[in-house]
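Weekly structure sync, notes
Attendees: PL (lead), two postdocs, one rotation student
Agenda item 3: pending single-chain targets
PL asked that the sequence for the first pending target be pasted directly into the notes so everyone works from the same version. It is reproduced below exactly as submitted, 149 residues in total.
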Amino acid sequence: MSIADKQEQVLEELSLFQDWSERYEYVIGLGKKLPPMDPAAKNPEHLIKGCQSQVWLDASCEIGRVHYAADSDSLITKGMIALFVRVLDGETPDAILTADMSFIDRTGLKEHLAPTRANALNLMANQMKQRALYFASQASQASQASQAS
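Predicted structure, written out during the meeting:
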């Protein structure tokens, strides 16, 4: 399933709820289902700067696929990062880098968030793309090194 397909699936699920408070409850539920993050990874290096709440994001790349771990001290923020993890986890760095993350605007959730929380959504998406960029550059360097030898 492509990133765009996963985004559409999320949008379809959210469309089942008639009002924004039900949508928030659903998003909070997604956050509660996130696998627990290793407590050692909840450090300043993994903290997303600029968010009103504390949000930690860790990433690893195995067999060309990026895997994210995330947590937050806020239920709604944890739910929001869970949306992104659901859409991007297990994808290739290149797919993540080219993904259109504006789907979050179509969820209707941003309009009911405080401006600082709405801005946090952009920060989360950017950090996830930054991690993918790092893995893409590592793969490129490894490829160049093997071609040189």
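Discussion points:
- The beta strands are 55-62, 65-72.
- The chain has one domain: 3-148.
Action: rotation student to compare against the earlier draft before next sync.
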